[in-house]
Amino acid sequence: xxxxxxxxxxxxxxxxxxxxxxxxxxxxxxxxxxxxxxxxxxxxxxxxxxxxxxxxxxxxxxxxxxxxxxxxxxxxxxxxxxxxxxxxxxxxxxxxxxxxxxxxxxxxxxxxxxxxxxxxxxxxxxxxxxxxxxxxxxxxxxxxxxxxxxxxxxxxxxxxxxxxxxxxxxxxxxxxxxxxxxxxxxxxxxxxxxxxxxxxxxxxxxxxxxxxxxxxxxxxxxxxxxxxxxxxxxxxxxxxxxxxxxxxxxxxxxxxxxxxxxxxxxxxxxxxxxxxxxxxxxxxxxxxxxxxxxxxxxxxxxxxxxxxxxxxxxxxxxxxxxxxxxxxxxxxxxxxxxxxxxxxxxxxxxxxxxxxxxxxxxxxxxxxxxxxxxxxxxxxxxxxxxxxxxxxxxxxxxxxxxxxxxxxxxxxxxxxxxxxxxxxxxxxxxxxxxxxxxxxxxxxxxxxxxxxxxxxxxxxxxxxxxxxxxxxxxxxxxxxxxxxxxxxxxxxxxxxxxxxxxxxxxxxxxxxxxxxxxxxxxxxxxxxxxxxxxxxxxxxxxxxxxxxxxxxxxxxxxxxxx
Length: 562
Ligand code: C2E
Ligand code: CA
Ligand code: CA
What we know:
The chain is α/β, with parallel strands linked by helices. Helix content is 53%, strand content 15%. It has helices at 2-19, 27-47, 53-74, 79-84, 88-97, 100-120, 125-151, 163-178, 194-201, 203-220, 244-256, 277-293, 310-318, 360-366, 369-391, 403-406, 411-422, 443-454, 471-476, 486-490, 500-511, 524-533, and strands at 184-191, 226-231, 234-240, 264-270, 299-301, 322-331, 336-348, 352-354, 396-401, 429-434, 458-464, 481-484, 515-518, 537-539. The protein has an eight-stranded mixed β-barrel, surrounded by four helices. It is elongated. The model has no long low-confidence stretch (mean pLDDT 88). One calcium ion binds at residues 462-463, 483, 519.
C-alpha cells in the first residue's frame, strides 16, 4: 500500500509538473522529486514484502515532508493547493493502517506541515482551513470504515464466527475453565485434499462445499459451544464442559454429515491446567496433523494413542479371526427357540478365544467398532437367512449395536443395505442397544432408532435396570423389546418366589407394550418364576450357551410350574 501511494503520488505530481511547468519556479527540481517518489514506490512495491509498523510510520512522515516541501517550493500560485491535496495519501495511509493514537499523531504532523507551508507563503486562513478540514474528514472516515470492517466477528461466506471471535471466546472460556469449570476441549477440522476440490470443480463449488458443511454442522454443535471458520477450509470449535472423548464423538458426527464426495479430518485437544491458549491450539493442531498423516477422514485426540489395537482388529477382520456365536432365545409360552443373540468372539492366534468385553471397549475408543459392528451385522443376518432357508422355520436374530455406531448418520441405511444384501426380512432383525452406552438424549440417536423401527426392525433395550433407567427416558426411546438384566434374574432365590422389582418391571413393560426377554436364566426354577410372572421370552445358560451354530428346536421347554 505504501509503495502504491508513493508511486501514484509521484506519478500525479509528475503529470502536474509537466502540464504547468511554465508557472512553476523550480520545475526541474519538482519533476525530480516526483520521479524520486515514483522510484521509491516501485521499489517498495516490487521488493519489500512487509514493512514493520515503524518503517511504515517513517515512510508516511517522510512522504508528508516531501509533499509539504513541494507545496512551499511551488510558491504562492494556485498550483500549491493542487500539490497540497497529495497530502491525502499520507493521511489515508495513516488512518488505514495505524492505531487511532498513531494515526492522530500523523494527522497533527500532516496538518502542521501543510499549515506551515501555506502560512509561509502568506495564504489566506480560509485556504488553510478548507484543506485541513477536508483532509481531516477523509482521514477519519477511512479510519472508521477500516475499523468497522475489522471489528466484524462473522465469517462472510458461512456466517459462522471468524478467527477474531474464536480467539476472543477461547481466551474467555479458558479463563472460565481454569477458574473451576473444567473440562473443556477444542476441535480443529480441515477438509481432506480441499485444494484438489477447488482445482477440479472450481472455487464456487469449493465454497458450496464449505457452506453445506457449515449448515450441517450448525445443527450438530451442542448449545453453549462455538463453531468458527477461521479461514480457508479450516473450521474450529470450542466445547466448554466437554472431555476430549465426548468432543471427538461430536467431531465424528460432524465429519459424517458432510457432502458425500468430500471427507474431512479433525484434531481434538482437551485443556490441561498448565495450558496457555497457544499451547491448547498447538495441541489440537498436532492432533489434526496426525489425523491427516494417517490418511485423513479421521478424528485424532492429542495425547491419546488411539491407534492402539485398531490395526490389530482390522487385521483380525481381514484374516477372518472373528466369529459369530449364537445364543438361543426361548419363547416361554410355547417352550421353543424363536431367535438368537449374536455374540462376537475373537479367535486370536496368540491369545486364543478373546471375550467381547476385552476388545469391544477398545474398539469403541479407537474407532474400529464401526468395522466390527458392520461385520457382525452382515455375518449374523447372512447366517440367519441361511438357517431360515434351510429349515423353513422363522427365526429372529438380535445384534448388539454400540452407541458409537448409532451416532453415524447413515447407520439405518447401512442396516437396510445389509438386509437387502442378505435377503433377511426386517421383521427378523432385532438391534440391541444398551442404554448406558448411548446418549439417549442425543437427538441423532433417537432419530436413528426411530428410522430403524420404521423399516420394521425391532429395537431392544439391553441390560435394562443397570443404567439410569427412568420411566420418562424409556418412553422417549423408540424400542419395542426390553431385556431384563441378568442381575435381577440371579437375584431370584433358589427356593423362594420372585423379587418384587421383577414384577414391577414386567408390569411396566406390559404397560408400555414392550416384549420382554429375561437374560441370564441359569436354572429351571428361575425360568419357572419368570414364566409365571408373565415374562414371554428368556435367554441363558439353562437353555443354551453361545455356540458357533444355531441351536435347533430338538427339545421343547416346558417351564410352567403349574
Ligand atoms: P450382552 O449383550 O448383555 O450379552 C449377554 C452376555 O451374557 C454374553 O456375554 C453371554 O455369553 C452372557 N450370558 C448369556 N447367558 C448367560 C447366563 O446364563 N449366565 C451368565 N453368567 N452369562 C450369560 P458375552 O458374549 O461375553 O458378551 C458380553 C458383552 O459384550 C455383551 O453383553 C455385549 O454387551 C457385548 N457384545 C457381544 N457381542 C457384541 C457385538 O457383536 N457388538 C457389540 N457392540 N457388543 C457385543
Ligand atoms: Ca445384548
Ligand atoms: Ca444384556
